[in-house]
TrEMBL record:
Keywords: Disulfide bond, Glycoprotein, Immunoglobulin domain, Membrane, Signal, Transmembrane, Transmembrane helix
Subcellular location: Membrane
One Pfam family it belongs to: V-set
Keyword Disulfide bond: yes
Transmembrane segments: 221-244
Name of the protein: Ig-like domain-containing protein
Species per Swiss-Prot/TrEMBL record: Pelodiscus sinensis (Chinese softshell turtle)
UniProt GO MF annotations: signaling receptor binding
Principal location listed in the UniProt entry: membrane
Length: 260
């Protein structure tokens, strides 16, 4: 029978899509064939089935569900190869979830599911905050990630601790900012800030090269001035002490003469 001859398969592993881009949710009929009077129903699984895209050889060819208008596409030219996959365009955060692929004709029906995980990435920027204590303050920032990203600073001799803050906006997208102070002894080449999440392999990063001239420098004239100031203060202190001692001796001598 037809039911025993054909099978339908989705993806065994979650499909990852990037917000704003497009993704294909696989659904394959095996062995490859073009069934007559075929219907293909793609629905999202929630508390109930949410219509996404429906195709029928009989009646209206293509219909899209609410919220998916102009964002879905099948591959009719691939039906003869058993390919009834769905292309979902301009991905949104709410598109993540499980999708149900259902294929049937008058004699046969079969179904399978595929999970879609939605991710978002964003550019990374490094800002120079200027002199801080004995080094230079840097800030790394990136806005528009999903799921929650991880951030790390990378440098050849980078030993300073950094402070990182992660926030989430009303659209569930994450922003991350991290602060670090780099001292001159740690400056040996580029310093990079790397941001990544667990769903997407490609990481995003930014790098900066700090030259020795950018670090706070103590002027030799300032050092000489501070030394002279210290010597002057010592000299003033010594004179005051000698004056006080001499005055005390005169006072004691005068008191002795009066008592005599």
């Amino acid at each position: 029978s037809v039911a025993e001859k054909f099978s339908l398969a989705g993806s065994q592993h979650p499909v990852v899509g990037v917000i704003g881009q497009e993704v294909v949710l696989p659904c394959q009929l095996s062995p490859p064939a073009r069934l007559s009077n075929m219907e293909v129903l793609w629905r999202k699984i929630g508390t109930e089935f949410i219509p996404v895209h429906e195709y029928s050889d009989v009646g209206p060819k293509d219909q899209t569900g609410e919220g998916y208008q102009s964002r879905t596409e099948l591959f009719p030219q691939e039906f003869s190869n058993g390919n009834v996959s769905l292309k979902l365009k301009r991905l949104q955060m709410t598109d993540g979830g499980r999708y149900h692929c259902y294929v049937k004709n008058l004699e046969w029906s079969q179904e399978t599911t595929t999970e879609l995980q939605v991710a978002a990435v964003a550019p990374v920027f490094i800002d120079v905050l200027g002199p801080q204590n004995s080094g230079i303050g840097l800030a790394c920032r990136s806005t528009g990630w999903f799921p929650k990203p991880e951030l790390q600073w990378v440098g050849k001799n980078l030993e300073m601790e950094f402070v990182t803050d992660v926030t989430q906006d009303t659209e569930n997208l994450y922003s991350v900012v991290s602060y670090i102070t780099v001292t001159e002894k740690e400056n040996s080449g580029d310093i990079s800030c790397i941001v990544q999440n667990g769903l997407l392999e490609p990481e995003r990063q930014s790098a900066i090269h700090l030259t020795g001239g950018i670090f706070p420098q103590v002027s030799p004239w300032l050092i000489a001035f501070l030394i002279l100031l210290a010597l002057a203060l010592i000299g003033v202190g010594a004179c005051a002490y000698l004056g006080y001692t001499a005055k005390r001796k005169v006072s004691q001598k005068k008191r002795s003469e009066e008592e005599a």
